[in-house]
Amino acid sequence: MGRHKEFDQEKAVDQALDLFWEKGYEGTSIQDLCDHLGIHRGSLYDTFGDKHELFLACLDRFSERADDNYNNILKEDSDSPKEQLERYFARVIDVSMNNAARGRGCLMTNTTLGPVAYVPNVARRLEAYAMNMEGLFFSFVMRAQAKGCLKSKHSARELARFLTGTKQGLHVMARNAADRSILEDFAKVAISTVL
């Protein structure tokens, strides 16, 4: 009979996510993970496989959290797409500033900029995350277009890609922005370009 695992796997993934987010994939060792999670190497390997497999689980968890943090705003069927996009970017700025204050930025953006981004199963997750964002913006733009709210002559796909880049840019800018108004100005211009 196998030994009973004496830790909560979901909580362990959340704790590992925070550590990877703080130190990056390359900067996090197996020993760091064991110490941070309070588990032995054997338990980590038995449960998650290895550091890389645990990191993949963390990327998946981060993607799930994005819906809770701000993506659900884009899914609403609002009478005012402009107000909806303003709320969305305000929430992205809130999250970005909080992460920047903790020295973290966006885990997906950080991962995209690091060497691990070239590992195929990481690259697939990064691409899926970006495509999901683009899809959410595309649906949002299509609803705004149906309501007659679009200012831009660009296609819905072009606008979705522009808004995806704006969102990612906000995460990057938050890492060294002197104050929130810098990010708000950036978002304001993007919103005014589209709606």
UniProtKB/TrEMBL annotation:
Q: Which residues bind DNA?
A: 29-48
Keyword tRNA-binding applies:
no
Residues forming the HTH tetR-type domain are: 6-66
Respond yes or no to whether keyword Calcium is given for this record: no
Query: Matching SUPFAM superfamilies, A to Z?
Result: Homeodomain-like (SSF46689), Tetracyclin repressor-like, C-terminal domain (SSF48498)
Keyword tags: DNA-binding, Transcription, Transcription regulation
For this protein, the record's InterPro entries field holds: Homeodomain-like_sf, HTH_TetR, Tet_transcr_reg_TetR-rel_C_sf, TetR_C
List, alphabetically, the Pfam families matched: TetR_C_13, TetR_N
What's the protein called, per UniProt? TetR/AcrR family transcriptional regulator
Species this protein is from:
Paenibacillus chibensis
